[in-house]
Write a structure and sequence with these properties.
alpha/beta; elongated
Length: 268
């Protein structure tokens, strides 16, 4: 399949474009960019700095990927942005490269970043994540697979958001969001399990529903029994937890560590 470059696009001859790439009008592609097969680069997109795109990504008009991080510590190190396959990056999204050394800002595969999303330097996002319009993700944020983040909100730097978490729109996210939970509010609070996400993932029906029942009991113990988090985790780990409960416990234990921001508390 031929590579198609619009006559008004500016593509550095050192850039590496695989078969089937299409570059739209007035797009700019810098010398250190690698674009995988079948990618569509829309009008007025800017890909600059060290950027690696996998296969089948669609980058919509006005998006800017790989520009310098908005970090005063940046001194010109050869950092980069790496995207997997089949991502949809909508209008005017910005994804900054990392700050120091040979670090990366990473986005997995199958993600949807809606218009005006910003991913700061050193962020690490997994697969099949949806981020709605107007979300500002600060530096060093980590987001697990299949999380859904509602629109018009900010995520504090160094926050971790767990697998299959759901964050309600217009929330203030300044602490870690546990996996499998629904979080919303200003300030944000853990409100419930993310039942819709769990159902779509198939976890609700896993092992005849036993794993979901175990997860419900663990959630109730943590957020509805009046225990401290340490007390609840102590009870849950008397016997080694398995599956989703093990993931939840491991996330919460790590979130309590000195280098993390701590988990968002529960609320009704």
């Amino acid at each position: 399949m031929a590579t198609l470059i619009h006559p008004t696009a500016v593509v550095d001859p050192r850039a590496q474009l695989a078969d089937g790439v299409e570059v739209g009008p007035y797009a700019v592609v810098g010398p250190d960019v690698e674009i995988g097969a079948g990618c569509w680069i829309g009008p007025h997109v800017v890909l600059d700095g060290r950027v690696r795109l996998g296969k089948g990504n669609r980058i919509f008009p006005g998006a800017c990927i790989g520009l310098e991080p908005q970090d005063l510590k940046y001194t010109g190190d050869p950092t980069e942005v790496v995207l997997g396959d089949d991502n949809t990056i909508r209008e005017c999204v910005t994804i900054n490269r990392a700050t120091t050394g040979n670090q990366q800002t990473r986005l997995g595969s199958g993600n949807l970043l809606m218009a005006y999303t910003h991913l700061g330097h050193n962020c690490e996002l997994g697969d099949r994540i949806v981020i709605a319009n107007g979300v500002a993700v600060a530096g060093h944020v980590v987001v697990g697979d299949r999380a859904v983040i509602g629109g018009v909100l900010g995520i504090h730097q160094f926050v971790h958001i767990g697998t299959l978490a759901m964050v309600g729109g217009m929330s203030r996210i300044e602490r870690d969001v546990p996996p499998f939970t629904l979080v919303e509010g200003h300030p944000a609070r853990v409100r419930a399990l993310n039942r819709i996400g769990l159902q779509r993932s198939g976890l609700i029906d896993l092992d005849g529903g036993q794993e979901f029942e175990q997860l419900k009991r663990a959630w109730t113990l943590i957020y509805r029994r009046g225990l401290t988090l340490a007390e609840a985790l102590g009870q849950l780990t008397l016997e080694p937890p398995r599956g989703a409960v093990a993931q939840l416990c491991a996330f919460l234990e790590a979130s309590l560590g000195p280098s993390r921001r701590g988990p968002i508390p529960g609320g009704r």
